[in-house]
Amino acid sequence: MKRDDWMLFFLTFLTGLAIGMYVYLMAFKPIYVPDNLNDTEAEAGEWSLVAKRYSDGSSRYVEPSFRVLSDRSYVYLPGGDSDSALSPIEGKFSAGLMRDLRGYDDELVAYTYPPLQPDCPSSRGGYDYEYRFTVDNTVYLLDTCETALGHNSGLAVLLQEAWSELEGGGRPSGSFSDWAEKWLNERIGAN
After folding, report:
1. What does pTM read for this prediction?
2. For the chain, which residues make up each domain, given as ranges?
């Protein structure tokens, strides 16, 4: 083989290597959302919820989203068009809401199937919601438009309560455990 043949062979190899690396990084590399879980990855594998609100895409605003871990801690990005749209707000869900959410762990599979009659307010200028539940390292993708979750199911109503609690509406608390938790936090300062 001549020098030109070796050079062509070498350049073909380098081109194939570059294309292979690009395909691996863009298509086959596992993607985990949210990107930065820091030291809570083990907790997120046990139980976590990542939620995102979306619309038809005509809005140029940042859509709100949140992540909740099994210890009730959440990180909420309020979205919007201001500078604080991406400023995370951290806190803890109420014990009652978390208990109710965890009560649906065994029923999540039923909500993952496509709906019989899809109702997508996002296509009409409204909002839909996308949820990623992780329960014992099994991921369930739910969507109010594309899965059987819908907007009126028991879980969807409970998730709307979660959005209300995050956005400041709060959740009506009448249970003894919520009252006791609040009382202890006021007196002792424990979380």
Report:
1. 0.65
2. 1-30, 38-187
